[in-house]
Amino acid sequence: MSLLAYAVDTLIFINIYAILALSLNLEAGTARLMNFGKVAFFAIGAYASALLSLTGLPFPASLLGGAVLAGVAGVAVALPALRLREDYLAIATIAFGEIIRLILLNERWLTSGPVGLRGIPQPMRDAVQEYQLFYLALTALFLVGVAAFLQVLTWAPFGRVLRAIREDELVAQALGKHTFSFKARAFALASALAGIAGALFAHYLTFISPDMFMPAVTFSVWTMIVVGGRGSVPGAVAGAAMVVMLERGTRLLKDYTALGVEPSNLRMILLGLMLILFLMYRPQGLIREKKYEVGG
Amino acid sequence: MADVAQLAANILITGSLYVLMAVGLTMVYRIMRFANFAHAELITLGAYTAYSLNQLGFSIYIALPFAFTASALLAVSLERMVFMPIRDRGGDVISLMIASIGAGMVVRHLLQQVYSARVLTYNIPLVSYELLGARVSQTQLVIVLLGILSILLFHLLLTGTTLGRAMRATSDNPGLARASGIPVHRVMLLTWVLGGGIAGMAGVLRAADTRLVPTLGWEVLLPVFAVVLLGGIGSFYGAVAAAYLLAAAENVGVLVLSSLGISTGYRYAISFVILILVLLFRPHGIAGSRLGGERE
Amino acid sequence: MLAGRGLGKSFGGVEALRDVNIEVRRGRITALIGPNGSGKSTLINVISGVYPPDRGRVEFEGRDITSMPPHAVAELGIIRTFQVPRVFRGMSVIENMLAAAKGEGADGVLSPFFARSRVKGYELSCLRRAREILDFLEIGHMRNEYAGSLSGGQQKLLALARALMAEPRVLLLDEPVAGVAPALARKIFEKILELRNTIGFLIVEHNMDVLMDFADHVYVLHRGEVVAEGTPKEVLGSKQVLEVYFGE
Ligand SMILES: Nc1ncnc2c1ncn2[C@@H]1O[C@H](COP(=O)(O)OP(=O)(O)OP(=O)(O)O)[C@@H](O)[C@H]1O
Ligand SMILES: [Mg+2]
């Protein structure tokens, strides 16, 4: 891959992961919903959109299908699970994520099992010459749209209630907020957004398999929002950029230096260290959540 | 008949391993009040420690105390270098939980860097016995014996020693325990030592019974959480009962799956589903004890 | 308007409430007193739906609201505060206030996009009201600070302000002015006096002077039971109350 192609490829991944990070940030940063199974909704969006487009559906329809299906899965998880205490929710969602992965592995008639789906159609493939650049623009468009949408929503009354729930759910209830409804809507919306990220991922790679949807994905997205700053929309984007570039950086290191460390190991070690060090020394992250203020 | 005997033996083996792996997690969860995901790596580190000694020609049984020591040391270091500082800076259980994920990532990939991701096996004599119609390997016999021995020792520790009583008092109410002169801090450290050490030994036995990979502990973490939650957080006797119960459910479940013509690839899903069901319907476990009321 | 009838609640072995009958009416200020652990906070928790009672009923304007979830109780206009002020620490003071306002259809996921002007109008009117209340409680100058950085007394004031922001029809206040400067505390009670014809009040308060000057009806709780009730004059000098507070 040429250097330019590599840079564009990196940017595309940043856009896709930023959408995923934004969706986790709505749940875990703005509200306090410990979703440790984020990857499941990413996977559902990816597989649904891929399968739909393999049946001949055009890209916008399959992407929408992926988003809707991921959102529906979000509702299905939210209805029973959002009553749970935060640590239980974390454990339950991680188990849900693993169950989804087992389904992808075992329902061969649908997902082709471990070998995964190949030849996923790309939108406008034949109509565009510089396809990578086109896809960069496409993902950038989605990222800008999602980020703008969430920035407005986060600072609108809906987002304010989510923050109140994060700070003290019982008090929010005592002030008349049907907190379950707010949490469920946030979870469903975030799941649908993760589905969009999954669809963009699948159609970019044209190939997906269950081992791309390991729990590690969830935790690198968690690193993105912890590093970026939980609750902050620009923070989630910045965190995604940092984590993706870190991953690319460790891969490049291997090509240019004799480091003696497997890049995938180095990357995970650094991600883990980043998580710990930020929680220790800068729990608010690089870009602290905005404080709502009013003038004189 | 032989089938039933084999089934019973398998349940005993799986269950005993679960007991050993769950004791530490349940104690730490209760006393430190957060779900320690790095418990997985305490298990894994023990297994690799034994591998190194085994390579030097030592039997894995001689290696057991060393595995205990290595994992106990890791547990104490994590407490001292990661969890304590975060707690001191006002981090909540969520921060601790995320930090434990980060710590687990670091340790797992350090191990993978040192030992590679290859599947390793110990040098152990492949001796097996016929017992009442069940075929059981030497390792499996040791697993069951050690499991039962540790249940007895733990029972004696909890009921017959000052340390045991202090541990119970601390887990019931740390504030009250401190007020009544119990060195809560030392009790917490000892909890890490014991819990981590036993997990390390369990790792050796699990690796001897199956194979050794860097994800050894991570693969069993969710079933172990299922044991802890089903047993009721902090309840040793609950964990023992839950361990054998889950083992029975898994071993019987596999038979049911294959008789129903469902892919046995779903055998891992059994414990995940049980885990989710427990969280939804019996979040305080079969023992029904609660983790502190939500007092004002 | 709001009444508890035969309320009972136990925690394990502790009987925190036993056959408690209590009534809150508009037009009078009802006070609740009793020594530590006598069940005052538990009573508020039971009325506001935080804990379901083991026995008895809670009625509001003739409706049985026993065991309704807290948010549903609050939506009826029964707003409570907590003894320990539980402010939204990581949010600014002004945002604490806005978060307490009724949603009025502006708090949907799509409302900031499809009902922009309505949301804008809603925010403006909430802001105006919030600043009025904050100014009255003399914490207007702190509006842009994180609520967690306020002093204990200021947090109590914010909790009260937030409760007012929720457009209450009944206020259940658990020691609303603990840690608040005496002059301001009196000013707050004077305001409460003004409001009592539109809002029902149940107030846990220990200060005898304040009770004498402002309360219309006092309930005395002891070990979960109402041992005396009546006007402050009748109750505060009575034998039962002296016994409760100073032993037999
Ligand atoms: N959630 C709970 N779990 C267990 N016991 C409780 C709980 N809440 C209250 N109690 C007990 O119920 C009794 C009444 O407590 P409550 O908090 O209602 O008293 P109070 O009158 O508000 O006291 P104070 O003046 O100290 O605020 C006490 O014995 C208390 O320990
Ligand atoms: Mg009280």
List its salient traits.
heterotrimer, B: 296 residues, mainly alpha, two-stranded antiparallel ribbon, C: 248 residues, alpha/beta, six-stranded mixed beta sheet, four-stranded antiparallel beta sheet, 10 strands, binds adenosine-5'-triphosphate, binds magnesium ion
Q: Residue-averaged pLDDT of chain C, rounded?
A: 94
Poorly predicted spans of chain A: none
Strand content of chain C: 15-25%
Give the overall shape of chain C: globular
Structural class of chain A: mainly alpha
Helix content of chain A: over 70%
Largest protein-protein interface: A-B, 42 and 40 residues
Query: Which small-molecule ligands are present, each listed once?
Result: adenosine-5'-triphosphate, magnesium ion
Helical/strand content category of chain C: alpha/beta
Please give the alpha-carbon distance between the first and last residues of chain C. 36 Å
Main beta-sheet annotation of chain C: 6 strands, mixed
Please work out how many helical segments of chain A DSSP would assign: 12
Strand fraction of chain A equals: under 5%
Q: From N to C, what is the helix and strand string of chain C?
A: EEEHEEHEHHHHEHEHEEHH
Measured between the Cα atoms of the first and last residue of chain A, the distance is 56 Å
Total strands of chain A:
0
- The geometry of chain A reads as globular
Calculate Rg of chain C over CA atoms: 19 Å
The mean pLDDT of chain A is 96
What oligomeric arrangement do these chains adopt? heterotrimer
| Main sheet summary of chain A | none
Outline of the structure:
The complex is a heterotrimer of chains A (296), B (296) and C (248). Chain A has 296 residues and is an all-alpha fold.
Q: Would you give an account of this structure?
A:
The complex is a heterotrimer of chains A (about 300), B (about 300) and C (about 250). By secondary structure, chain A is mainly alpha-helical. Chain A has helices spanning about 5-30, 40-55, 60-80, 85-105, 110, 130-155, 155-165, 170-175, 180-205, 215-230, 235-255, 265-280. Chain A is globular, with a radius of gyration of 19 Å. Chain A starts with a helix and ends in a 15-residue tail after the last helix. Chain B has a two-stranded antiparallel sheet with strand order 1-2. Chain B contains eleven helices and two strands. Helix content of chain C is about 40%, strand content about 25%. Chain C has helices at about 40-45, 70-75, 95-100, 110-115, 115-135, 150-165, 180-195, 210-215, 230-235, 240-245; strands spanning about 1-10, 15-25, 30-35, 55-60, 65, 80, 170-175, 200-205, 215-220, 225-230. In chain C, a hairpin with a 2-residue loop joins strand 9 and strand 10 (about 225-230). The mean pLDDT of chain C is about 95. Classes of the chains: A mainly alpha (about 300), B mainly alpha (about 300), C alpha/beta (about 250). Bound molecules: adenosine-5'-triphosphate (ATP) and magnesium ion. Magnesium ion binds next to helix 1 of chain C.
